[in-house]
Q: What sequence folds into this?
């Protein structure tokens, strides 16, 4: 059901192959696929209709119809159109320069993630050198203020709770508090409210009037369905927000709501929220979102994810490995890093086309293999992990029994380690000798072992 | 079957065939069909399902000679209502019973537990709340407020404690007190987080194993505003935990909760309750026909 759009279009055009020229009907079939893809991504029905109509017009040019690769052309047009739509305005927080404190107010439905987003935003602003104050204006949900206080405590941002009864009073009190304590930004967390709840919408307007926020951000759950249009329209009419934070994008929802919000209200998506930790508020990238909505994989995402997990410590580790060789602990760490990125399956899934390939051979990237290797390493003693050379037959038997694997599997792992270590030794040799004659030979040797173009002459 | 009967049946069949040929849409026009499809898609039923359903309805209309818009909508609502599996047992009224609430973040698990506890208490049942959401900040405090409001004790531990061991404690305490209804709140999690899903599976397994004195049900709480991703959510939760049923929350907005139909019929899960408002009484038993009537836009 959730095939990526490019795969589907490929299939559609495959059937038309050999027709020479595409007709308008053929384009209509393609547009139907696009329509379905967008609807599956929860883009609002009405938005889909107008969007597809626009795309169709562009696709009816000779460029596409007579092209040898109509599928790619159509995908490109849709993707471009979507990217432009999602992010033609800048997505930064705009705060008045001559006002202290600046005020940011968060609004949204119940359970959309306002309180969490408030803490994340505070963390982000704090890391940019601001001194934020969180105002707990959710006086309706039980313990909402406690939640904010706990989150604030974790990231080292103070929280103003006031009397915890009147949201407007808490908001105004927070401003005063910020003035007294020299905070330059106040983040107002409000209660979740349904857009049709007259009383609650009135309250939001009252808070807005009392604190005159520089920015009002609406927090929208990425999993929201068709109803998002009603919600944001009403919120835009009543409290008039400036931008959107999309929450829960770490799930597998396509987040088509982002497109609906843009199309219906014209408000930009400013941030996306990608997890439970305070540092998971990220800048919005329209191009990536467009690909996600169309289910097309996210290559940049992989790289960033890898960068995020690689930190200083690991650079040091790499150096140590070169100096002293590669231990079993290092192997373990590397595997855990892949885990951290969401497992092999997820990483491969982000590569375009891989999703399709993987569905054909589900065992290709098996995370359980990693679990087995981890189990074997965990069954080694400290000594053995640091110096795997000492693992003799007796020890192998013990490790196999301890991890519930066979001796053969243990042997295989040790052999793999040995090869990696040899490789590491050669790299070390290379680095020490620089570009010398010996080094070149070693490089050739290594290339040969890696299955590269070993025999040939190197270009220098 | 007598001769007359078989004749009648035969005539019936040909009459249907004739209707099918001469059916011109009755008093409804093409706009009606498009409008109906729009309504269904906008209710989060999913585009493919919506199209299939309207196509089927056209055929049915021809067969049964339904001509007026109300008739058609009514027929559709009835047919869709049959898609919901009937619940064999209501874990909130068939006591004793132990229920675990699972779902993604912000679906309304804690609030639902609070409301159900209040209801049970009013009905005179000995109720106990378990707070196994030891992850989210102030989740325990939130539950305790609900407990106080409902006059029901909350068994929990400090933040960061192992949720499975909390459940163990809760069941033990429930058995000691002879509680009839045990409601356990768990931490919200995205279905894509493999580690957290494993943790939840452990929580459920421990509870199922420990709790021998009463049946244990696992209920997925789902937000009515959820779109097509809801089906993924429910599938993952069902695969990991073997769900017993659903509770749909936040139906008091303009969202129709069409995804609940897809989940319920595809996974064969009954809907136990729906949340239609903020107060204790706004958690109602589910009526399939009412639900589908709203979905097909009756009375619009």
A:
């Amino acid at each position: 059901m959730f095939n990526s759009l490019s795969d589907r279009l490929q299939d559609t055009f495959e059937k038309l192959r050999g027709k020479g020229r595409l007709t308008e009907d053929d384009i209509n079939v393609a547009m139907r696929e696009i329509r379905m893809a967008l609807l599956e991504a929860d883009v609002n029905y009405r938005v889909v209709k107008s969007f597809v109509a626009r795309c169709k017009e562009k696709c009816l040019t000779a460029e596409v119809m007579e092209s040898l690769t109509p599928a790619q052309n159509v995908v490109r047009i849709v993707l471009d159109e979507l990217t432009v739509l999602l992010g033609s305005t800048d997505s930064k927080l705009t705060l008045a320069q001559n006002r202290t404190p600046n005020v940011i107010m968060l609004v949204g439905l119940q359970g959309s993630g306002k309180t969490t987003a408030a803490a994340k935003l505070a963390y982000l602003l704090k890391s940019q050198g601001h001194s934020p104050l969180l105002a707990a204006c959710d006086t309706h949900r039980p313990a909402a203020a406690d939640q904010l206080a706990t989150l604030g405590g974790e990231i080292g941002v103070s929280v103003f709770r006031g009397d915890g009864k009147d949201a407007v009073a808490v908001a105004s009190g927070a401003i005063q508090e910020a003035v007294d304590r020299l905070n330059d930004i106040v983040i107002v967390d409000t209660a979740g409210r349904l857009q049709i709840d007259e009383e609650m919408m009135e309250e939001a307007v009252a808070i807005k009037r009392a604190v005159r926020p520089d920015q009002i951000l609406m927090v929208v759950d990425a999993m929201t369905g068709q109803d998002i249009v009603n919600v944001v329209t009403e919120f835009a009419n009543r409290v008039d927000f400036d931008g959107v934070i999309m929450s829960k994008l770490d799930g597998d929802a396509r987040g088509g709501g982002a497109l609906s919000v843009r199309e219906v209200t014209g408000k930009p998506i400013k941030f996306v929220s990608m997890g439970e930790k305070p540092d998971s508020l990220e800048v919005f990238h329209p191009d990536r979102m467009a690909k996600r909505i169309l289910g097309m994989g996210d290559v940049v995402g992989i790289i960033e994810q890898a960068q995020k997990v690689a930190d200083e410590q690991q650079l040091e580790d790499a150096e140590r490995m070169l100096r002293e060789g590669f231990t079993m602990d290092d192997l373990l760490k590397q595997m855990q890093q892949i885990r951290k990125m969401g497992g092999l399956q997820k990483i491969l899934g982000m590569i375009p086309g891989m999703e399709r390939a993987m569905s054909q051979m589900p065992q290709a990237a098996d995370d359980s293999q990693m679990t087995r290797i981890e189990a074997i390493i965990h069954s080694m003693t400290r000594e053995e992990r640091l110096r795997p050379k000492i693992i003799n037959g007796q020890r192998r038997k013990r490790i196999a029994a301890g991890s519930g694997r066979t001796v053969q599997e243990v042997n295989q792992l040790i052999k793999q380690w040995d090869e990696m270590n040899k490789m590491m030794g050669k790299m070390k040799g290379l680095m020490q000798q620089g570009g010398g004659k010996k080094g070149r030979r070693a490089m050739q040797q290594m290339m040969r072992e890696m299955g590269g173009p070993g025999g040939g002459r190197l270009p220098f | 079957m007598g001769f007359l009967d078989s004749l009648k049946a035969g005539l019936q069949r040909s009459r249907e065939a004739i209707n099918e040929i001469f059916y011109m849409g009755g008093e409804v026009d093409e706009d009606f069909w498009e409008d109906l499809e729009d309504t269904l898609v906008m209710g989060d039923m999913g585009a493919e399902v919506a199209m299939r359903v309207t196509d089927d309805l056209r055929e049915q209309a021809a067969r049964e000679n339904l001509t007026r818009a109300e008739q058609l909508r009514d027929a559709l609502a009835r047919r869709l209502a049959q898609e919901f599996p009937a619940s064999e047992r209501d874990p909130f009224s068939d006591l004793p019973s132990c229920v675990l609430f699972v779902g993604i973040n912000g679906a309304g698990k804690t609030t639902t537990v609070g409301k159900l506890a209040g209801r049970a208490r009013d009905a005179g049942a000995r109720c106990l709340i378990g707070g196994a959401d030891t992850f989210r900040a102030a989740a325990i405090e939130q539950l305790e407020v609900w407990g106080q409001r409902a006059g029901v004790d909350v068994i929990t531990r400090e933040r960061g404690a192992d949720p499975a061991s909390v459940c163990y404690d809760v069941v033990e305490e429930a058995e000691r007190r002879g509680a009839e209804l045990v409601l356990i709140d768990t931490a919200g999690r995205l279905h894509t987080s493999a580690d957290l899903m494993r943790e939840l599976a452990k929580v459920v397994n421990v509870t199922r194993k420990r709790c021998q004195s009463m049946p244990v049900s696992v209920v997925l709480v789902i937000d009515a505003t959820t779109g097509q991703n809801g089906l993924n959510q429910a599938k993952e939760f069902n695969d990991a935990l073997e769900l017993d049923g659903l509770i749909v929350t936040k139906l008091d907005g303009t969202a129709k909760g069409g995804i609940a139909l897809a989940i319920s019929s595809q996974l064969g899960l009954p809907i136990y309750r729906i949340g239609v408002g903020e107060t204790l009484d706004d958690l109602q038993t589910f009526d399939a026909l009412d639900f589908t009537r709203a979905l097909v836009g009756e009375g619009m």
Observations:
- Chain A touches chain B through 50 residues (CB under 8 Å).
- The first strand of chain A starts at residue 102 and ends at 108.
- The radius of gyration of chain A is 28 Å.
- Residues 3-86 of chain A form a domain with the Four Helix Bundle (Hemerythrin (Met), subunit A) fold (CATH 1.20.120.140).
